[in-house]
Design a protein that fits this description.
Blueprint: H1 14-42
């Protein structure tokens, strides 16, 4: 006999658990990236000169 059509799948459905786990990882990753971007934005100005330095041709 087949189960009734209106019966919900069990709460432990592997697809639901996987979706929830992936959603949580995505939220954590986005939060980490936001913090990283804010720290770069709030950091001190870079003191390096613009562009690349020319090679003087000196042998090291």
């Amino acid at each position: 006999m087949n189960p009734p059509e209106n019966q919900k799948p069990p709460k432990g459905d592997p697809n639901d658990r996987k979706k929830a786990r992936l959603a949580e990882k995505l939220r954590a990753n986005l939060q980490r990236r936001k913090v990283q971007a804010r720290s770069r934005r709030d950091g001190a100005a870079d003191s390096r000169p613009e562009g690349l330095l020319r090679d003087n041709g000196d042998e090291a």
